[in-house]
Amino acid sequence: MTDSSPKLLEIVPLLEAIVGERNILLHPESYLYDETPKPVRPEAERNVVVVRPASTEEVSRILRLANERGIPVFVRGGGTGLSGGAIPTRPGIVMSMERMSRIVEIDEQNLVAVCEAGVTLRQLLEAVEKVPGLSFPPHPGDESAQIGGLVANNAGGARAVKYGVMRNYVLGLEVVLPSGDVLSLGGKVIKNVTGYDLMHLIIGSEGTLCVITKAILRLIPEPGATYTLVIPFDTTAEAIRTVPEILRSGVVPLALEYMDIEAVRAGERVTGKKWPYSGGKAHLMIIVDGGTEDELMHKSEVIERVARRHGALDVLVGVGRREQRDILEIRSLIYEGLKEETIEVLDVSVPIGSIAEFVERCQDEAERLGIKVLHFGHAGDGNVHQQVLRWGFEGDEWVESYSKFKEFAFGLARELGGYITAEHGIGMVKKEDMARTMPETALTLMRAIKRVFDPNNILNPGKVIDP
């Protein structure tokens, strides 16, 4: 803590009695920020105490104490978010879930995994891979992300086009309310219509309603091997207009990604690896999965026929594991390749049939404003990522052009029937944008829900919506 806040200093001994002295940190530098780009991220409040509970009971006692004293609590998972959701913005408690990292069981009979909130995606995948025939399909980017955070943000990722988002895999949750009460929702069942669906209300609530301590996650049969296709085009329109026809062809890819060639170059720079094709303005990266080589070949041939009808310059198929891994790594690290030059990464969702119009009109607007914007993302599910760069600007000259571009992109997304964020969430970065683009009736209901769950506004205050 950087100053002697009486309220916080007073509770340090009480917190130590709950979690032990070694699990209280008063110099929290590594717990202050997430992956939100520096130009738009909120300033972190350094007058905080970091608490690392190891059980649901400890979480309950911490929240009860904080609620009684009116002390804000900011829950932190892996710190991989891009909307400032985990950044403490008021004096209070940062609750790190890192010690709650136990995989309780992999239940082969019911096809579920039960794990604590601090389990990382990497830990879960490794545990599931040890069980023959089962898999956990969602893969929302960084494998250091924690399960609690993935659920709280309803994380998506490239595989959503075929296998859905985190919401589709959550069967049950254990959560702790701000009052300290522990609530178990759902379970090892597929169907449940017993009253209002509180569990799905909590999924995607970004730590503003309760603290997730445990999750029951659905597993599915292992889909088999994969091929990775790289398909370059001369124009954005040709590439993106290929997407709906691929989805209508009967082939549902594991991933269907779109990238500007400049986005590809950024991924190449940070990885030191080469993309399979150096030409073309716009590229599709498509992953197909299947149980046999014949099935994989058939799916690849169907996609190739569609792509060539739309002007594909070539169709390159990666078969070997290393070759496919290199392609995926280049795609996955586009953001890292330009991280220091990035103002923000927008992530609107629009109907699949409107992606081409959205990208083309945004490219025209960016050119008019003189600001550089790279486009890439999950074309198969309508999630377009826009990496807005500071290229060509000195100091803070970019602010006006960036603000105008963001307003245009969000307005266009709504015009086309979409939304301002598909997977990064609102956090603090998009809070004002949500207030401008959502109906007032919806905002009123959200405020009421926040007040019911968290009447003293201690959980992640200032994020998503104010009560």
TrEMBL record:
Keyword Oxidoreductase belongs to the record: yes
PROSITE patterns membership: FAD_PCMH
Top-level taxon in the UniProt lineage: Archaea
EC assignment: 1.1.3.15
MF GO annotations: (S)-2-hydroxy-acid oxidase activity; FAD binding
Pfam families per record: FAD-oxidase_C, FAD_binding_4
Essential cofactor(s): FAD
FAD-binding PCMH-type domain residues: 42-222
Membrane is among the record's keywords: no
Class in the EC hierarchy, top level: oxidoreductase
Keywords: FAD, Flavoprotein, Oxidoreductase
Protein name: Glycolate oxidase subunit GlcD
